[in-house]
Amino acid sequence: MVQKFILVFLVFKVMSIPAGFSANAQSPVNDTLKITIKQAEDRFLKNNLQLLAQRYNIDIADAQVITARLFPNPDFSINNGLAGTNEPNPFAEQSTSISQLITTAGKRNKSIRLAKIGVEQTKYQFFDLVRTLKFTLRSDFYTVYFQRQSANVYSQEIGSLGKTLIAYKDQYAKGNIAEKELLRIQAQLYSLQVEYNGLLTGIDTTESQLKLMLRVPSNTAIDPQVTENIAGKETLTGVPYQRLLDSAYVNRYDLKYSKITVDYNNMNLALQKATAIPDVSLSVNYDKLGSYGNNFLSAGISIPLPLFNRNQGNIKQAHLEVDQSKLQLQGQQDIVESDVATNYKIALRLEKLYNSFDPKFKQDFNHLIEEVFKNYEKRNISMLEFLDFYDSFKTNTLQLNSLLLSRVTSLEQLNYVTGTPFFNQ
């Protein structure tokens, strides 16, 4: 009896020693980058290759405006005689001409305006990409943080149970404890290791994506720095729903893109109608030994006759594209309204659940676990009861971290669907 009491006391002491095992211990890392969400955003905007590559599209669109501003080049031709009947010197016969195409119906101005609208479209696509990637960045950042908190719970319990198992194997070999107690600890340890491995795999996957977005070396671990009061208890009450919806209408770049696409197609329709009107070509001709007389100078004008091709197909296509873009705009407006309404409802529900938790619950539960240790040391509770209490502690901590992550993510989702950083700043 005395041996068992000493053994249990030693086990308690072993389990109370910090495991010193972190979620990063399984990864071949050479350095750790401690970074806040603000620092991560700044690094992302400067280093993200996808963003930098997309930025070139704006310059490409600007170059198309320059192209639209240019006038058509004049045509120049020269002819020299080679041979002729009854001509003593056919090489003396020379004629030259120069012609200039004059566009009509404001085609050039319409092309310029169309190219400028194209620049705005490209900018909206770029800023919408920034919005999407920032949401992914921030979501991954908080996911890594809260999953690391959960991983610490596993690592501490695995470390403690691992040391306890070694002590129990030694005592079992001496015949001081029953085999069922040894097997119970082994089963608990193996179960925790499997769960822990799955959690680490998820962390590694998310962290890998985060590293790519920030252009952090693969052998560097990211350690997110987050304040405890990231999500206040009454966060949503400070921002009315109508304000969120109005902000989405104004700041969602995918909606802006849909709106300006209607303008683009209307301008394209105007350009296609103008294209049906023929352009004029003016020319000046010089003939050194012309049939009318020597050094003959003439001027001319040419214009195609729109008898068959009046650009009917392109005009019809442009009409259809206008109607199509208007329907797409209505659909995008519906998506914006649905996004805001749905995510606001989810955020409200999570805020209500979060606020229902007593702030002292976690502290009280930690104190309860300490008392459980003491009672197990005194043999007031069995090994199975002790493990059940400890498993409840693990489950409660994981659920609390999951709730915090869901709440933070729901606020990030509201930032995303409104196009405005209302929360988690």
Descriptive account of the structure:
The chain is of the alpha+beta class and 425 residues long. It has one domain: Outer membrane efflux proteins (OEP), CATH 1.20.1600. It contains 10 helices and 6 strands. It starts with a helix and ends in a 7-residue tail after the last helix. The N terminus is likely disordered.
Features:
single chain, alpha+beta, Outer membrane efflux proteins (OEP), four-stranded antiparallel beta sheet, two-stranded parallel sheet, 10 helices
Mind sketching the topology for me?
Blueprint: H1 2-16, E1 31-36, H2 37-47, H3 49-69, E2 75-80, E3 94-102, H4 107-173, H5 179-214, E4 220-225, H6 241-251, H7 253-275, E5 280-289, E6 294-302, H8 312-355, H9 361-377, H10 383-418
Parallel strand pairs: 1-4
Antiparallel strand pairs: 2-3, 3-5, 5-6
